[in-house]
Amino acid sequence: MSFFLTFIFITVFRYYHYLHYSYSVCGLFLTEKATDGSLQNEDWTLNMEICDIINETEEGPKDAMRAVKKRLNGNRNFREVMLALTVLETCVKNCGHRFHVHVANRDFIEGVLVKIITPKTNPPAIVQDKVLSLIQNRCGLETRSDGLGL
Predict the structure, then answer these.
(1) Alpha-carbon span 72 to 43, nearest angstrom
(2) This model's pTM is above 0.85
(3) Are the C-beta atoms of 149 and 102 separated by less than 8 Å?
(4) Residue ranges per domain, the chain?
(5) Could you point out which of 9, 83, 88, 99 has its C-alpha 20 to 30 Å from the C-alpha of 75?
């Protein structure tokens, strides 16, 4: 019986450790689920769970940005794009400096967000407004007193 309990404890510990330190598995799945174009509305529970993972894991901010970029880059499904932008906005509002550094990065702004609203992609006005709002909020991050000053 003792061997069995030890085995269960080790298995649970490894599983917890893996999820706790790896956004890639759990967070990527949640990001894809939260930005699924078949959703009728934003899933705020998923969005906040993504924020929790970002805040609680070492690689969370970097991995979350990778997942959001994957959903945004070249995506012609503007429903998915809007959901991804909502996840991004939620994370900006609920995650700290470690996440803000990735969002306020010029390469992300110009290489991902600006590309969404180019005339070539011809996005709906609601997508354009959301992107412009996020870019404007990036400027707000620059002037914050937390030393982000990018």
Answers:
(1) 18
(2) no
(3) no
(4) 2-142
(5) 99
